[in-house]
Amino acid sequence: MEERLRRRLRQSLPALALLGIAGCASQPAQLPPRDPGGLVDPGIYEGMEESFKPPPGQRTFFEVNDPWGPVNRKLYVFNSYLDNYVLLPAVRVYRTALPEPVRQALTNFFTNLNEITTFINLVLQMKGVEALSSGARFFNNTTVGILGLMDAATHMGIPKYEEDLGQTLGHYGAGPGPYIVLPLFGPSSLRDTAGLAGDFAISYKVNVFGVRQAIWASIPLTLMEVVQIRDNLAFSYGDLSSPFEYEMVRYLYLESRELDIRQ
Amino acid sequence: MHHQLTSTAVTCRRNRRRLPWLFAALCSLLAAAALADDLAGYVYPISDPFEATVTGTPVELKHKFRHKKPMRLDDFELDVFPERELPQLFQSVRKLAFTLAYQEAPAPLLFVIAGTGGSHRSSTSRYLQRVFYQAGYHVITLSSPSSYEFITAASESQYPGISDEDARDLYRVMQMSLEQVSGLISITGVYLTGYSLGGLQAAFVSHRDEQEQAIGFRKVLLLNPPVSLYTSASLLDNLVGSERGIKNAHDYYSRLFGKFTEYFAENGMIRLDDEAFMFKFQESEQSLTREELMALIGASFRFSSAGLVFTVDALNRTGYVVERHQELTLGTPLEQYFKRGLWWRFTDYFEYLLLPYWKGRQPQDSREHLVERISLHALRDYLASNRKIGVISNADEIILTPEDVDFLTDTFGSRATIFPHGGHLGNVQHRDYVARMLGFFSTATGGS
After folding, report:
1. Dihedral in degrees, nearest 10, Cα atoms B193, B171, B182, B125
2. How confident is the model at residue A45 (pLDDT cuts 50, 70, 90)?
3. Interchain CB contact of A96 with B (< 8 Å)
4. Which pLDDT tens digit goes with each residue over B57-89?
5. Is A5 on the interface with B (CB under 8 A)?
């Protein structure tokens, strides 16, 4: 106990010294004691609840099917730490170690590999034209694009789609179910989690020269894939700079998934 | 008066093609008189300030970056109040993060203070960081004192909004950050800027610096600052609706999202970093009406104020948003607090949290006195006499009244650049705006 106190004091000494130099060594404000009691309405909340009430069936920021909220929130924070202290530093190393053209080639390679699940899901949704397009992309990128390292299909003007099993389930009427935050993978729903597991199974079962199987058998290659995926995500935790980031991300995730499905 | 002259000049410019050269010359003269500097070359196609605020600058008028080379960036954390006790919910922001973009060679350093509720990684901060990095500066971006992470980690009183106290908090953080990066970079001089609310705070930080002399800013530039915090807050509140309650808050927010949803459904998913996205959107069937643009801006500021009100209330245990007995852990559902936070207006924050806090410290101070004390009016003489401080804003700035624009031109004189159009920072990426910023800092003190 005493040791802990001493350690804390030692840690804070440099900062306190700095404050002294700055000539503002005044004490930080203390939290007032927590007196029991509920909400103090300054007289402004009248009509609020009715005003925020959505018409039946509409999703809002506030009323979302999130029965595992408390666990989800903790996992959300866990993910933010994982991101800030593991993934983003790894991305920085990745960016320093590999020049842009190499990183682009890797992204193309993994994207091309995932074309397989997109193709299968388009077939499952009976979207013939899109499935043909996806198949053509895979064929051209794997051959002309040299094992997918180059995105030849885009240069040829073959449109790109991204479909997963969660979307396929949604296409056939499955609702999202409860919201779920997955460790590492982030925002999801019961339906999309099932879809994700299914997509993994499909990827693993479909054998194209054993490439996918070989990647997942190797820890370094799997890690490289994870870092590559992270490198291509625009979002980072704390960007919204709001204590309500969890609520905003949850809403945006669920809304954007519904959009993906409707397309 | 200056404001009216500006509009005249603009009208002239618009018709110039059809006017004889003599008339054109007269126009230029008028423009020069009104704007102190000749901004005759300024082309900005959006005359509605709300649309300008939302859509920004057309790609072809944007400042062109010379290199594609990525910035050398590093994130740091400051433990400003190591002894501070915080609810578990706020533990992840107990230290204040800031970002440094650094040059290898010795270089001047620029601080950038973010706008209302903004983080050190907000898009405008990042943009300014890139502009000045390419111009050869080290750049440190700091979160706004009104952001939840700053309130939690670095605000002494945890009641942001008292401009002088915010400046004290910022000044402390700046000194600590300089200390922290001093081993990594070599600094030849320190400069300061801030946009929106951060612009007003930059003025107060500079004023404090004159007294404490711990940093010694060479030049200070305010970008689209409010003149009176209270006036700007009221103007933004009014965008959401002049009455206290939004008649149907659900409708209000979902209608805005609905339009975007519809657009995505018709046009396919867009890349969010698509620079021209808002322009394409405004040309589509779903384009927002003037009222909707106002609502969108109002709503986005509401999201900031919701975070501000919740954080201040939760940390000070005032019990207005979070029940006093409520523990705030990582698992605590926040939906109800989010809702209450969105219900508060900026001016409610002033009435129910800021004013009582200030009365507790200065019981003899009146409400009007506080409104004055947190505005740029409080620094009028300092701003008028100090050649190292400049300002850039727009004549149609939505957070300013015409009198506020006059205050800027009267106070800053030739150190004020007032573009005729651009709304609130809609033109910050405009080549002329960027040229003004860079030009201001590159000229020696006193010149411009």
Report:
1. -30
2. confident
3. no
4. 998 999 999 877 778 888 899 999 999 999 999
5. no
- Candidates B110, B101, B81, B90; CA nearest to B173 is B81
The listed range with the strongest mean pLDDT (A209-218, B13-22, B97-106, B243-252) is: B97-106
Q: Which of A29, A37, A62 sits opposite B158 (nearest CB)?
A: A29
- 3 state SS of B432: helix
Beta-carbon separation of A238 and B119 below 8 A: yes
Pick from A114, A106, A145, A125: nearest CA to A228: A106
Alpha helices (H) along B16-79 = 21-35, 49-55
Say whether pLDDT at B13 is over 50. Answer: no
Answer yes or no: is pLDDT of A73 > 60. yes
Cβ atoms of residues B239 and B294 within 8 Å: yes
Q: What is the tens place of the pLDDT at every residue in B243-285?
A: 555 656 777 777 766 676 667 656 654 444 456 777 777 888 7
What are the strands, taking DSSP E only, across A91-242?
179-182, 186-189
| Residue ranges covered by each domain of chain A | 67-262
**Closest by alpha carbon to B240, among B306, B197, B292, B281?**
B292
Distance CA B423, CA B416 (A): 16
The model's confidence at residue B39, banded by pLDDT at 50, 70 and 90, is confident
Report residue A102 as tokens.
Answer: 């190499």
Contact state of A247 with B335 under an 8 Å Cβ cutoff: yes
**Helix-then-strand count for chain B, H and E:** 18, 8
If contacts are CB pairs under 8 Å, which of residues 284-313 in chain B contact chain A?
A: 303-304, 306-307, 310-311
pTM of the entire predicted model: 0.84
CB spacing of A38 vs B325 below 8 angstroms = yes
Q: Are strands B107-113 and B187-195 parallel, antiparallel or unpaired?
A: parallel
CB atoms within 10 A of CB B162: 23
Give the nearest partner residue to A62 out of B70, B268, B335, using CB atoms: B335
Residue A119: band (very low, low, confident or very high) from pLDDT cuts 50, 70, 90? very high
Pairing label, strands B138-142, B107-113: parallel
ipTM over 0.90: no
Using an 8 Å Cβ cutoff, are A231 and A95 in contact?
yes
Handedness of CA B78, B82, B84, B87 (dihedral sign): positive
**Dihedral (C-alpha) B56, B59, B60, B66: value to the nearest 10 degrees?**
110
